């Protein structure tokens, strides 16, 4: 099926948990910034027509990146939250297109996982995810309340893949209701949709803490794909 596919990368966060002097997406990793590693797979993929990166109005770092030289990339201003940044990016995309939303700090996405996601045609969309393997505890005030049944629990990853028109509507609905959405699938769920879960690789990690940098470097230099 021929369809326009656009990748959206919200990159306007500051990454406070990294305790770094600059936003985490610009930290060096194997000679490039994290953001450049993240974007490279989408740049190289023949099915991705465009990449929209949402950056902060105070961000001066992206202007030094070679990414600006690619005609496939467009920068837009991000918003107050991740969801608002994604919504701003969606305004630049044809409503008949499909969108892949991917975290700026997930540089280890493999082509095989991206290809699996791009095969999805279900109108309710799909996300990459991994099944929970650790014992999951629910806590109240720092004390264990009970142990969750992990057999039905999944860790949500990105990319998350949806028709642009539906995702725009879902995000707008969440804003109007004052709902906090931490990923695109949760906005779709609020509308009554049930996106598919596509089993992805566990090395598609999100760099959040300083120790994650070493792990990302290992994954990038020891690819099993």
Automatic annotation (TrEMBL):
Gene name tied to this protein: ispD
Phylogenetic classification of the source organism: Bacteria, Pseudomonadati, Pseudomonadota, Gammaproteobacteria, Pasteurellales
Stored Pfam families: IspD
Family the entry assigns: Belongs to the IspD/TarI cytidylyltransferase family. IspD subfamily.
Protein's UniProt name: 2-C-methyl-D-erythritol 4-phosphate cytidylyltransferase
Domain of life: Bacteria
Organism: Actinobacillus porcitonsillarum
Record-level GO BP terms: isopentenyl diphosphate biosynthetic process, methylerythritol 4-phosphate pathway
Positions marked as site (Positions MEP for the nucleophilic attack): 150, 206
PANTHER family: 2-C-METHYL-D-ERYTHRITOL 4-PHOSPHATE CYTIDYLYLTRANSFERASE, CHLOROPLASTIC (PTHR32125:SF4)
Marked site: Transition state stabilizer: 17, 24
GO molecular function: 2-C-methyl-D-erythritol 4-phosphate cytidylyltransferase activity
Keywords of the record: Isoprene biosynthesis, Nucleotidyltransferase, Transferase
NCBIfam families for this protein: ispD
Record function comment: Catalyzes the formation of 4-diphosphocytidyl-2-C-methyl-D-erythritol from CTP and 2-C-methyl-D-erythritol 4-phosphate (MEP).
Catalytic reaction equation(s): 2-C-methyl-D-erythritol 4-phosphate + CTP + H(+) = 4-CDP-2-C-methyl-D-erythritol + diphosphate
Pathway where this protein functions: Isoprenoid biosynthesis; isopentenyl diphosphate biosynthesis via DXP pathway; isopentenyl diphosphate from 1-deoxy-D-xylulose 5-phosphate: step 2/6
Enzyme Commission code: 2.7.7.60
């Amino acid at each position: 099926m021929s369809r326009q596919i656009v990748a959206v990368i919200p990159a306007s966060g500051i990454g406070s948990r990294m305790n770094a002097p600059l936003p985490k997406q610009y930290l060096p990793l194997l000679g490039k910034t994290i953001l450049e590693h993240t974007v490279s797979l989408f740049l190289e993929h023949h099915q991705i027509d465009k990449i929209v990166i949402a950056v902060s109005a105070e961000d001066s770092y992206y202007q030094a990146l070679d990414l600006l030289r690619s005609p496939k990339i467009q920068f837009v201003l991000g918003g107050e939250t991740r969801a608002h940044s994604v919504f701003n990016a969606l305004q630049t995309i044809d409503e008949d297109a499909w969108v892949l939303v991917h975290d700026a700090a997930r540089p280890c996405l493999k082509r095989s996982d991206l290809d699996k996601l791009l095969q999805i045609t279900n109108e309710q969309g799909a996300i990459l995810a991994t099944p929970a393997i650790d014992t999951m505890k629910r806590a109240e005030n720092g004390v264990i309340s009970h142990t969750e049944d992990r057999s039905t629990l999944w860790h949500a990853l990105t990319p998350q893949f949806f028709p642009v028109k539906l995702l725009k509507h879902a995000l707008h609905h969440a804003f109007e209701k004052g709902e906090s959405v931490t990923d695109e699938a949760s906005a779709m769920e609020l509308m009554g949709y049930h996106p598919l879960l596509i089993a992805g690789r566990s090395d598609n990690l999100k760099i959040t803490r300083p120790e994650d940098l070493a792990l990302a470097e290992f994954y990038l230099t020891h690819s099993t794909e």
